[in-house]
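User: Here's a protein and a ligand (flavin mononucleotide). What would the complex look like?
Assistant: Let me lay out the input and then the predicted complex.
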Amino acid sequence: MVGDVVTEGDVDPVGAGSTLPDPFELAARWLPEPDSGTTPLMTLSTIGLDGYPAARTVLLSRFDGRRLHFHTDRASSKAAELAATPRAAVTILWPERSRQLVVTGDVTTVTGLEARLAYTARTRYLQVLAWLNDHELAELGPGERRARWAAFTQSHGDDELEPPPGWVGYAIDPVRLAFWSGATDAPSNRLLYERAGDGRWNVRRRAG
Ligand SMILES: Cc1cc2nc3c(=O)[nH]c(=O)nc-3n(C[C@H](O)[C@H](O)[C@H](O)COP(=O)(O)O)c2cc1C
């Protein structure tokens, strides 16, 4: 536990008792169980090669108790950006729960085995997409794109698919986590955790 006492009158965004939890405990409460098969959407922000931020939506493949995993194509812009600067932020929104989690951290690639397991866990549509979705196909007309999709799915039938050669997984190791909670009868509020040089976490409550 992080030893910061919640003061009376605070909006308690975590629904916890009198002390603030470790950030990974809290993340585990907010995020799906590792093998639940639930994959929330995240806005993944990287540092563009031109210095501007680059943002797009990806699925959270897995939270392993510390790191957040996502998967993509090695030929994508985000892969090139992460090779140049292995740092990223992800923003996950639960509008129905009035919650937002922003995690910023250092990015590494995951093992081949882990990437394979994540591929197997994806829906058939997403497995096929990972094989077909390249820039060459994107430039074809809609009829030709459909025909290529049909040809691929027909030729593979119900066969188990291997991940394509460019399939790659990344994991963000957090240096900062911001848990935002909104309310209709109280101000929104954040719990901001920042990793100190000694590896311990500083935690502050901030306005939402
Ligand atoms: C709902 C949704 C989920 C997506 N999930 C992923 C994903 O898990 N991995 C991925 O590479 N792209 C995913 N995409 C596509 C990306 O948003 C993006 O367009 C693509 O990866 C190319 O990004 P880049 O050129 O910035 O690398 C998703 C898009 C949407 C709308």
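Summary: Residues 37 and 107 are 22 Å apart (CA to CA).
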